[in-house]
Every structure is written in structure tokens, then in C-alpha cells.
Amino acid sequence: HAFHCSEAVPTGLDYPTDDNGAIGSFVSNPVWFTLTVNINPPVITSASVLSVGTSIATIAWTTDVPATSEVVYGATTSYGSSISQTATSTAHSVTLTGLVSGATYHAAVSSSYYGATATSSDLIFTTELLPSVVSPVVIGVPASYAPPSTLEPVSIPTSSALSGAASSSLGSESSFFAAELVSLRGELEALLKKALQEGKITAGLRFVRDLRRGDRGADVRSLQVYLGKADAGPDARMLRAHGYTDYFGILTFRALREYQASVGLPATGFFGPLTRKKIGS
Q: How does pLDDT run across 23-67, given as a tens digit for each residue?
């Protein structure tokens, strides 16, 4: 009888059939036959050396069906050493230990599925070298050398004596420069104040904030100086005649409105972004 089986069954067992070849039918005159099933070996893919150290290496691969794991390895393709795992899986990973540093190894992986075994091609890897160790240099002393029996005393000044001398010298110099700095700073401030009052400088005309009536500061004085020099009308001349201060009062307010009107800006008397941009340009 011809028989086709789509599922794997144990090999070498006898099964009863009827006249049409159906297995397991209860018939009065069964026909017995021997069923032999051929099982294909697993398909090995992606076999590679994942990582290598000075004395270990990890090899991994995959199979299309759950199968066992084994790695054979050695210095040549004759291998000689092996590690196996009986647990079945489709993802395999085996770590080799006790390897020699800086040595080249050959390895091959294999997996078995119900007695059918597949083996990969040869894999080659080299373990890492151990870090080099620098030997200490030993300087020999001649046998004829003899240390002196006595040592002459050396006078070393104490830290307090050194710090006292240094402090005395530095202290006098520091006092001199500090006095000079104070004097120069006073002269500079007097010159700047006089120049601002006379309208000779405008402190760079760098305004970083809005100004309105009641505000105080050096930037208010700079604005007053600018308005006096711009001379947009009688209010500017009145501000200049009164003298420049750090206070944004009624004279500054009127002179600012006068200037804004002369340059085509809204005459609000408020020193905001538009006026700051105009003056800055």
C-alpha cells in the first residue's frame, strides 16, 4: 500500500491499516506495514563570534526549529575541545572560557533536532592581548659607595620668618598702589561729572530701559545731555540752562516731547523703544 504522512511519528513502529491504507481502523483482517519518517536537520543561520576577550569568547547562532547547542573549537580545524547544551532553543549562545590571550582559534557550531544534526562552516577569531606591564627600572648603587659619616647642618628659615618678610614687602607696595588707585579714581569721577554737566559727553548713549517722569539714574542724565545738544526748541534750551541732573522731571518731560515731535515720533514724553531706537541710530 502507498501511504503519505504529513506529521512526524516515531520511526520503525508497525501500524495496522485497512484495505484502503487508513491507519487505526478496526478491521477484521488488518494489514501491517512499517512506517519510516525522515527528519530534516535544523537550518543554522547567523553563526558568528559576538564578543572576544583576553580569555573568553561568545558565539551565537539561530536555527529554524528548537534544537540543541554545541560548539567545537581549537587551534586548528581539527578543533579538539567542545561545549554542548542539551536544552533546545532557536536562539543559541555559547561562551568559551579558559582561552589563551592573543591566540587564534577555529570554531564550528552544530545543532541537533530529533537526531538530525547540522554543522556550520568554520569560524575564526583571535583573543585580545593582555595589557603590557612596564617593568620597574632598578638603579644600582656601586659597591664602593660609602655614605658620609657626618652631615653638615643646613640653616633653613622658618615659614613664619619667610611670610613675615614677604608680608612686610608686599604690604608697603600694596598700600602705595591702593593710595594711587583711590586718587586716580577720584580725579576720573570729577572729570566725568564735569563733562556730563557741560554736555561734552553723553555716557555712550546706551539706554537699556524705558524712562518716564519720576525716574532717576545716570541714564536720565545722559538723556538730558542728548536733548540739550539736539536743541529741538525752547524747552531743550531751558533744560540746558537749568543744568543736567539724575532726575526725570517736568523740564526733561517737555524737552523730550519737543524732540519727539521734531523727529516725527509720537510726542508722548515717554522714553520708550521707539525713541531709544531713534537716538541709538
A: 554 555 666 666 667 789 999 999 999 899 999 999 999 999 999
Q: CA gyration radius for the chain?
A: 51
- Indicate the pLDDT class of residue 166, thresholds 50, 70 and 90: low
Residue 35 grid coordinates: 512506517
Instruction: Give me the amino acid identity at 275.
Output: T
- pTM as predicted: 0.39
Distance between CA 58 and CA 216 in Å, rounded? 77
Q: Which one-letter amino acid corresponds to residue 244?
A: Y
The stretch 91-106 carries a mean pLDDT of 94
Residue 253, all three cell numbers: 518731560
Q: What angle do CA 132, 137, 139 make, to 5 degrees?
A: 175
Give CA–CA dist 27/60, Å, rounded. 53
What whole-number distance in Å separates Cα of residue 275 and Cα of residue 281?
10
- What is the three-state SS of the chain? CCCCCCCCCCCCEEEEECCCCCECCCCCCCEEEEECCCCCCCCEEEEEEEEECCCCEEEEEEEEEEEEEEEEEECCCCCCEEEEEEEEEEEEEEEECCCCCCCEEEEEEEEEECCEEEECCCEEEECCCCCCCCCCCCCCCCCCCCCCCCCCCCCCCCHHHHHHHHHHHHHHHHHHHHHHHHHHHHHHHHHHHHHHHHCCCCHHHCCCCCECCCCECHHHHHHHHHHHHHCCCHHHHHHHHHCCCCECCHHHHHHHHHHHHHCCCCCCCCECHHHHHHHHC
What pLDDT, on the 0 to 100 scale, is given for residue 176? 80
